[in-house]
Structure formats: structure tokens, C-alpha cells
Design brief:
alpha+beta, binds adenosine-5'-diphosphate, 9-stranded antiparallel sheet, 5-stranded parallel sheet, Rossmann fold
């Protein structure tokens, strides 16, 4: 354990831990995930330092904001100096610079080695194969523009190896006449998807696990962004258990510490296939803030700070919907139907404090909890009908 951490959490003579706040968590990335880490984990006595090019949703709440690029080693070193532990809320960061900081005894979780794997979809697929985890059949091409696809079976799903998110960097090729993106990529068989599932799995520094219920994700057909999460997923116990086991095996294979968002497909033949993993709290885990004993954000920080993990039990069925900017959004955000939505029983609203609305940008989300999933779904649809995120120039 690095010195600064040891100073703040140590054992007294009777073996009880003593915590002397504040423990400063440095977050790489100033987006909404960092913001929710801050407002859900301040209660544990943490302080937060945030690094990003713009203040953004998280920087606005941080105790210390450092302006700089997530790719700039000097900016990362400055954040490390201001923090006891480093974590991140986005994976598009300089993993090499993090490795250098780790060598200088800075505590960084999840590890830069795990991050390197997750940053590259080819390395992820190779890890799935090494760990014996099920995934769609795939092959890799470094220069798809010049490759011969004549012997391949179509349709294929092309995924850029690096820098993709929310469906960007993913393209479906229906037949060999379609031109692939000419960037190092993997190509997967098209899965006949019955349901897209996700599991949040947390692993502590001592190797202990805390796994959340399996949820269902539904996507916005226009824009490939997840817009609805249903907790728990409407799948049988055996499928849910198998999905959770896959998530555990994967996080163990990564030697992960923190919370991981594991995405899977359930195909029409009932098979589970691993899609991808995120080394951080995930959109599919936002529902845990209202519906579980310990939310994913607090859990992540418990894990990275070396504290015991919290209980993950689902207290009530829940439905989360993203509040995406309308297709004509621009300028300062405006939320139509705000008061009407707040009248809906069981609704909890989170706005991310972004200063500019853009089409399909994640401006906030809301979660409905209820005694039954049907009621939560019904009320979530009512909220979706009244609450709109737009903007005006
Ligand atoms: P991103 O990293 O951008 O989120 P994903 O790998 O999750 O990319 O793919 C985005 C979406 O594309 C998935 O949620 C799913 O709906 C669809 N998709 C991805 N891979 C496949 C596949 N092999 N077969 C069918 N659909 C897929």
C-alpha cells in the first residue's frame, strides 16, 4: 500500500482500523460518472480531485480541479501528486503514463495493465479466449481496406480496436461489397440477439467479490445508445447465475480492482456471449443508486480505496432511462416537463450539469423504483413521455 494511503487507514493496537480523513481520490475524467462517484461517495469522508480539459459535470463538484489532457503525462502526474489513490471514469486515457506512475508507487485502480487490455478490443477478445469465456466468433484485421473478405461469412460486425464508445467505431457489413472502416479492427459474427444483458461486478483489493443483479439493456434504435435498463433482467435464474459467473471469471482474469460493467448477449438459442467490459461504473448500473443497498459509485470507491465492499442486494425492481438530447438540441440545456416528471411516484432524477445540449448527448437519467417491475416500467414510460432534454441557442 502506498504511504499516503497507509497513513490514512491503519490498524490500532486492538486490530481496529482507524481512518483519518480526508482520503483524496483522483479521478481521470470530468464526466457524469465522475460526478456521481463524487456525490455518492463524499459521505464516506473522501475528497476528490478531478483532471480533464474542461471542468464538466465532475470538475464542478470536485474539491480540486486540474485542467489538462487525459493523454498528457505531466497532467496525470499533477493529479497523482494531489491524490492518495487514482481511478478513472473513462478509458480513453494514457495507459503508459499511468504505468509510469504506478512504478513510482502511486496507487491506481483498476490497474493500468487491466486498462491496456480493455482499451483494445483485440486484447479483450484474446483475454476472453485465454480465460475460456464464451464470445461471438471473431477475427482481426490491421488494414481492413486491403483485406480479402471473399471467403468470409456475412453479415459481420466490424469494431475498431481502439477509441470506440456508444456504438461509435461499430459498423455492420451486410455483404462483401460494403467497404469496411480502414482502421485496425476485429470482425465478429452477427449474433441473433434475444436480449442484451449487463452485470456490474466489484472486486476489492483483497480479491473479494460483490456482484449486482443481472439487468437488461434496451438501445435507442436511431443512435445505438443504451436508453433503458431494466433491473432485474427478465431471464431465468440459471441464465442470470451463468451471466454473473462469467462476470466474476472475467474480472478475476483481469486481476481487476474496482467496479466493472460486463456486457453480454443472450442469443435466440439461449446462449450467453460476452460482448465487452468497462473498467468503471457503467450506465447499466445507475439504477443501483436507488435500488440497491450499496450503489455502484460508492462500491467502486470502496474497492479502489481498499475498504470492504458493500452489499449489492436489489431492494426494489427498477427501470432507468437515459435523458438524451433531442435530435434538434443545441446551446444551453432546457428540460421540458421537469415538474411533471417529479410528480411521478418513485421517480428519481439526475441531471448531469452539462452546459451544452447536443443531439443524443447524455444530459441526465431517471430511475423509477416500484413494488413490481411492471409498475416501474409503466411509470418510466410516463416519465419518458413528459420529460425532454433540449436546448436553445
Ligand atoms: P461500444 O463499445 O461502442 O458500446 P459494442 O461492442 O457494445 O460497442 O456494440 C454496440 C452495439 O452493437 C451492441 O450493444 C449491440 O447492440 C450491437 N452489436 C455489437 N456486436 C454485435 C454482434 N456481434 N452481433 C450483433 N449485434 C452486435
Amino acid at each position: 500500500m502506498p504511504l499516503s494511503l497507509r497513513r490514512r487507514t491503519r490498524y490500532n493496537k486492538s486490530g481496529m482500523t482507524v481512518f483519518s480523513p480526508p482520503l483524496t481520490i483522483g479521478i481521470l475524467g470530468g464526466g457524469q460518472l465522475g460526478r456521481m462517484m463524487i456525490y455518492r461517495a463524499k459521505k464516506l469522508g473522501f475528497r476528490f480531485a478531478v483532471l480533464d480539459e474542461e471542468e464538466g459535470p465532475a470538475g464542478a463538484l470536485a474539491d480540486v480541479f486540474i485542467k489538462g489532457s487525459l493523454k498528457d503525462p505531466r497532467a496525470l502526474a499533477e493529479l497523482a501528486r494531489a491524490s492518495d489513490v487514482l481511478t478513472y471514469e473513462i478509458e480513453h486515457i494514457n495507459a503508459g503514463a499511468l504505468e509510469d506512475l504506478e512504478k513510482k508507487s502511486h496507487a491506481i485502480y483498476p490497474s493500468p495493465a487491466a486498462l491496456r487490455i480493455i482499451q483494445d478490443k483485440l486484447l479483450q477478445k484474446e483475454l476472453f479466449a485465454r480465460a475460456g469465456l464464451p464470445t461471438a466468433a471473431w477475427f482481426a484485421e490491421d488494414t481492413p481496406g486491403g483485406a480479402d473478405f471473399s471467403q468470409r461469412k456475412f453479415p459481420l460486425v466490424q469494431k475498431a480496436r481502439r477509441e470506440g464508445y456508444d456504438g461509435r467505431g461499430v459498423r455492420v457489413l451486410k455483404n462483401p461489397s460494403e467497404t469496411p472502416m480502414n482502421t485496425p479492427s476485429i470482425f465478429e459474427d452477427m449474433v441473433a440477439i434475444d436480449k442484451e444483458l449487463a452485470v456490474m461486478a466489484a472486486r476489492g483489493r483483497d480479491g473479494s467479490f460483490a456482484v449486482y443483479p443481472v439487468v437488461e439493456m434496451a438501445f435507442n434504435p436511431e443512435h445505438n445508445i443504451c436508453d433503458t435498463v431494466i433491473a432485474p433482467a427478465r431471464v431465468d435464474e440459471k441464465t442470470a447465475g451463468a451471466a454473473r459467473d462469467i462476470a466474476i471469471d472475467l474480472v478475476r482474469a483481469l486481476d481487476g480492482v474496482g467496479v466493472f460493467g460486463v456486457e453480454l448477449f443472450l442469443d435466440t438459442r439461449g446462449r450467453l456471449l460476452l460482448n465487452e467490459v468497462a473498467p468503471r461504473p457503467h450506465n447499466s448500473g445507475h439504477y443501483t443508486m436507488e435500488a440497491c443497498v450499496t450503489c455502484q459509485f460508492e462500491q467502486h470507491l470502496r474497492a479502489v480505496a481498499g475498504l470492504p465492499l458493500g452489499e449489492t442486494r436489489l431492494l426494489r425492481p427498477a427501470v432507468m432511462m437515459n435523458l438524451l438530447g433531442r435530435p434538434d438540441s443545441a446551446g444551453s440545456p432546457r428540460f421540458h416537463g421537469y415538474a411533471q416528471a417529479l410528480r411521478i411516484p418513485g421517480l428519481s432524477l439526475h441531471l448531469y450539469g452539462k452546459t451544452e445540449a447536443r443531439p443524443f448527448r447524455k444530459m441526465g437519467h431517471f430511475t423509477l423504483t416500484a413494488d413490481t417491475l411492471e409498475e416501474a416500467l409503466e411509470n418510466a414510460e410516463r416519465a419518458r413521455a413528459v420529460l425532454k432534454a433540449g436546448g436553445s441557442l
